[in-house]
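Side project, low priority. Logging it here so it doesn't get lost.
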Amino acid sequence: MTRVGIDIVDVERIKRLHERHGDRFLRRVFTATEIEYALSAREDRRYERLAARFAAKEAVIKALGYAVPLRTIEVQNAASGRPLVRCKFVDGKIEASLSHTDRLAIAYVLIEGD
């Protein structure tokens, strides 16, 4: 079975959530690896990276058709830069494409398998 999910996120929304709730927001939504990756970027790119990962998590949930905790989904990068998405609730393969600008982040996810 193949399932598809897509999501788009306003980068400014993620920035506002972090400013309002601080690191508590980051720890609730993202894994330590995702936070480290995002915060390693220049300041103007950090929220773009977070928004893209948030979009990927939401796209996975849409593809699954049911909610799972956001931290059970992790987005990393291969050495080539290609996103690697893992979810504790997915036995099959997850393919993803992420893109972002300074304003918007989008993720497309394809789940293959059971």
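Brief comment: The chain has four helices and five strands.
Revisit when time allows.
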